[in-house]
Amino acid sequence: MSGHSKWATIKRAKAVTDVKKGAVYARMGREIIVSAKFGGGDPAANFRLRQAIERAKAAGVPNDNIQRAVEKGTGAGTADSFEELTYEGYGPGGVAVMVRCTTDNRNRTAGDIRSYFTKFGGNLGSTGSVSWNFVERGEVQVAKASALDEDKLLAAAVDAGAEDLETDGDDYIVVVCEPFKLEPVRTALEKAGYKIDSSEVSMAPNSTVEVTSKDVAKQLLRLLDTLENHDDVQNVYANFDMNEKWLTEVMN
After folding, report:
1. What is each CA distance from 69 to 42, 66, 135, 155, 199, in whole angstroms?
2. Exposure winner among 3, 65, 111, 174, fewest CB in 10 A?
């Protein structure tokens, strides 16, 4: 399993059990607000909003919080003026990093993100400096326990419009598809009886950078973790690979 994929799995698990619930609730609330703002407040007609609500519920966000966030996004409540921004740069070891944010103060967010890169031995770049090395794709995580026959899963996924499977995860298989096919692929697999752990539009690296120094690995993971914990940050993507032992030691 590639380092960046293993890291993504660990951080998803941490998000669900994070003791700093206030920060988790705020981050997910912003995603719901923006999703409702640009796609409407009906989850049945707004797939992005439906995904945001599902992730919020999985993390234990109360229904009242979710409803208030939807109302803010649609203008029914007191709305903050949020905008979506993406920052790009390089972390320790030359690892490409993309940071997607939702913020009501771009100057504050930009200053914080820049300072994190500098503090942990990286540098913030210009727009396009690393995004060329990432491709947007849909990812549906299927529990391996419900997909013992990978050939059948592949056939069902391809029939639904998916492109490929990634099977090197410990507990799940990733079904890869084009972003706009994420919803029909997930729906088809659920109807076929597969257990879906999660589904999202992600940014996957075209190539990875091997981190060969434990010290560099620690510094890189501290940068990524600090970025992840910022209230304005929604997603962090990186193109590294490293010894899984280092990854587990630092993240756990």
Report:
1. 13, 5, 30, 39, 21
2. 111
